[in-house]
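worker-3 :: picked DNA-binding transcriptional regulator, LysR family
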Amino acid sequence: MRIEQLHYLLELYRTRSFSKAAENVFITQPSLSTAISGLEDELGVKLFERLRSGVYPTPMGEAVVKIASELVNCEARIYEAVRAAQPPDKIRLMTIPAISFGVLLELMTSFQKDYPEVNLELKEFPPQIITDAVVDELTNVPGTFALVPIQPKTCEEVLAQLARDNITSTHIFSDNFVAHMSGKHPLASKDVISIDDFLAYPSIELNLLTKTPDNTAYNRLYMMGNTVGRRRLKERTHIEVDSLAHVKHLMLSTGTHVVALPRLIASGDRDYESGDIIWRPFVNGDDLSVDYYLIYSSLYPLKPIEKGFLNAIVAYFDQLSIAK
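worker-3 :: tokens ->
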């Protein structure tokens, strides 16, 4: 008997449906059916009646579910007790270099004032990827969160894979891609940039990677991807880089290169505040969106201080959404 079988048992009892239970625990319906049947075979009793109208617990099933619920609660208490015995609270926020450190530093400074006893750490994970190493750190290092951008077209598969890795995802902010350029760029005089305007100039592409469903390979996720398209790509200068610092250096040094990145990157950045670098929205910019998620391990209950940190991030980005 494995503890995950008890989790499956409780979810099947709650939903009364193999398909719904399998979906909620992120496994296939045959896998769930095999796990429940295996548990019944091991115990030598029938736990559920499978009828056309649904799945119903037998009297013995009701008794087993009650005990299973107690065991699962004990599991949660064990994890909580272990975490409570850890050293003083430490919260680590991991992020990719493409997310504005100006915004995050302001957020963490504000939180530190309210909770001076908590050690806060801001860490980049290299470079712009959600890898198994990041998932392992979220799972194995208590109090670790990661702030990641995910494009809507890949969101469902990425979040499903994270859930299978026991990672919880909380949506905190929706943003749009905009055109970033030097303040002296010929397009700087425009209020709105068309895709044709954008494609008429040398471009910079900041590479991002996102996890694929097979849990082993990683696909390159270009921030503009096929949304903007690769029209006339061979007819213009196109440079790929892997850090935001390189992007800014190219924009400032050439004065002609453009890059499409989320608007959030400009928040709290000195080069944008000084006007050396600016951004302009795209025509039909609502079609060029990205969602930011805060991800963290679901294996352990959040401590009160961690819940406070999560709520602080959500509230902070809510303010950004209002000001957007």
